[in-house]
């Protein structure tokens, strides 16, 4: 197993270490406790949407096996657990579902009992189907419904939960869910999808004062970010990279951090902003969440979308293939660029997801020696260290994922876990990367 040291523990000592999952990906129990339907239930039941035809059921079945997962977290020695709360388990037909809420009560209490801080994410893509039928995130009213849901969750858990994330990866919902249809709800609106950006950010803004009223001490949104690289020095590729950075990074970060949208005229887009929206969206928070997996190389192309993502020359790749290059130093570059771009407006950063999928067997009787994952994680922890050395305030590093899980449209074909899960039996088997991460945390605390 690759050695955890030396990664200069003095520079990493400031970090909270965490691992993450998301409700739809690990809970299973779709028909338990009165849970309602989400857009992901609809998506997976549509033929040919999910690569292997799987439906996330039962998957890791964390709904019934969460005590095992809490024990795994305690064994890692992590400071906190970033999990998500299922909107459709908490509300059914728009009303509080006490049986669903009770599941999260049990989970929070188990985490606290194990010395692990709960850090829930309130939205990780499981929009109620009934709201999608009314326009989903294209409809401003969805943000208002989200605020009602947040009130229910905060009232139930706010006496024990002090750390919250609001919206996870709005860029994925907008671009993959509404623009090109790769993810739920599977719509193909191209640039007409962009109002969903504003309504998701508004949902974040509406959630913050509700969480504050229930005792929250640390709140942040989580954006998926990437370092954008032009395919060449050609001005057309440079412009394509600029536009991709605009639509993937800046349109999500600028309103939260600066209280304004970047100039979207090159895309022919006007956001549906009402008076007071941007003040809500940009209300100060204690943390800014960054999910980071890879840089993105972009080239110009013809057609309604003037850019395309292309392979990054010379870079190894993860199990997702040529568009998921492994370039740890690009994480350092992104963090330094953000620090320079946003200055004092940028709160401390949490790396809220970072990880890699590689080909692995569905079943195993022994620990998997996942050296490729260890190398990926080690390189990216070192990239965080270099960003800290350059003056960037990073307070948290989170591995995606604690468990092998349902990887959305890829089904069970992509495995990100520190812990192998047999999806037939639910058996959990820690991989070599689990031991590596535990050793890293111990070294950082030494």
TrEMBL record:
Annotated EC: 3.2.1.21
Pfam families: Glyco_hydro_1
Enzyme class: hydrolase
Catalytic activity of the protein: Hydrolysis of terminal, non-reducing beta-D-glucosyl residues with release of beta-D-glucose
Matching InterPro entries: GH, Glyco_hydro_1, Glyco_hydro_1_beta-glucosidase
Highest taxon above the source species: Bacteria
Entry keywords, A to Z: Carbohydrate metabolism, Cellulose degradation, Glycosidase, Hydrolase, Polysaccharide degradation
PANTHER family: GLYCOSYL HYDROLASE, LP05116P
Annotated family: Belongs to the glycosyl hydrolase 1 family.
Record-given protein name: Beta-glucosidase
Organism in which the protein naturally occurs: Microbacterium panaciterrae
Lineage: Bacteria, Bacillati, Actinomycetota, Actinomycetes, Micrococcales
